[in-house]
Amino acid sequence: MLQDPNIDSSLTKNQSLVLESLNDARGPLSAYSILDKLRNKGFKAPLQVYRALDKLTEFGFVHRLESLNSFIACKHASCDDSAATAFVICDSCEVVQEMSDISISNFMAVLANKASVKPIKSNIELHGICNDCEKK
Amino acid sequence: MLQDPNIDSSLTKNQSLVLESLNDARGPLSAYSILDKLRNKGFKAPLQVYRALDKLTEFGFVHRLESLNSFIACKHASCDDSAATAFVICDSCEVVQEMSDISISNFMAVLANKASVKPIKSNIELHGICNDCEKK
DNA sequence: ATGAATAATGTAATAATATAACATTTACTT
DNA sequence: AAGTAAATGTTATATTATTACATTATTCAT
Ligand SMILES: [Zn+2]
Ligand SMILES: [Zn+2]
Ligand SMILES: [Zn+2]
Ligand SMILES: [Zn+2]
């Protein structure tokens, strides 16, 4: 084999296929729509997708959008554990912006402190109408 | 009838029953666990619960926890539309704290502005381990 | 009061999302 | 090569949510 077809050689075949699907998509995908896209690559059962998504999420390559029951490839070079991320979702065109800056992490740290909770994972999703859709 | 049994007389019977279930619960409930609690009050189908939850959410009496696919009664006198709310969830004991102050609203307004999006609804959920569970 | 319009409900069927269980294969370590 | 851990294949099932359509209750103008 001349070249590793995986984007990241540490990924397994199923993980690579799922990540490619998400990278190719212009928006978030449900697990079952990923399954449908990968049926011609041999995928037959939802668990193949969910297992790959679990790992990809663990690695930080994929995020789950809780309010949409769907998944999206990380748009950042690396969303390490310390960096909290927020998603801004247009309810009209379904475009998702992934925002990740220190002010988000700081805000969540303050919130955790106020609530006397040791933070594990934060989930911030803002639904609205994007500029382009608003103009129409 | 001497007295209206509803907490809020504007609520219908099904809405009141669902809200009472959530008020009685010590944590968030799934729609199906609400259904089970209300079978002895005549509930037979999930739609009875989901329809009541839709209205209660619209009125601001109930919030949906997206990351848990579950619902919780609002702990504030009134969570009006302008006040963003954040939920802090202990992954060990499942206690949920509802936080609502102006800094949360301000933070989401800044986020919306950065993303050039007109905000509709925000969802902030922080998972962690609460003080009590941490000590154990 | 009466009838039209609106809102809420009842009920059955089905769709959409996610996991459990167990056998098999592959990759890594020694 | 043998042993271990990780990943995969496959079937069945659990959980969450909605569609569709008939019925009943409430509201409001006449
Ligand atoms: Zn990311
Ligand atoms: Zn848009
Ligand atoms: Zn509230
Ligand atoms: Zn706790």
What is the CATH-assigned architecture of the largest domain in chain A?
Answer: Orthogonal Bundle
Main beta sheet of chain A: strand number and arrangement? 3 strands, mixed
User: How many helices of chain A in DSSP terms?
Assistant: 5
Order of helices and strands of chain A: HHHEEEEHEH
Query: Helix proportion of residues of chain A, in percent?
Result: 25-40%
- Rg from alpha-carbon coordinates of chain A: 17 Å
Looking at CATH, which topology of the largest domain in chain A would you report? Answer: Arc Repressor Mutant, subunit A
Show the largest interface: A-B, 34 and 34 residues
Given the C-alpha coordinates, what overall shape of chain A results?
globular
Major β-sheet strand ordering of chain A: 4-3-5
Mean of residue pLDDT of chain A?
A: 90
End-to-end Cα distance of chain A: 50 Å
Could you say which structural class the secondary elements and strand pairing of chain A correspond to? Answer: alpha+beta
Q: What would CATH call the class of the largest domain in chain A?
A: Mainly Alpha
Q: What would CATH call the homologous superfamily of the largest domain in chain A? A: Winged helix-like DNA-binding domain superfamily/Winged helix DNA-binding domain
Counting structural domains of chain A, the number is 2
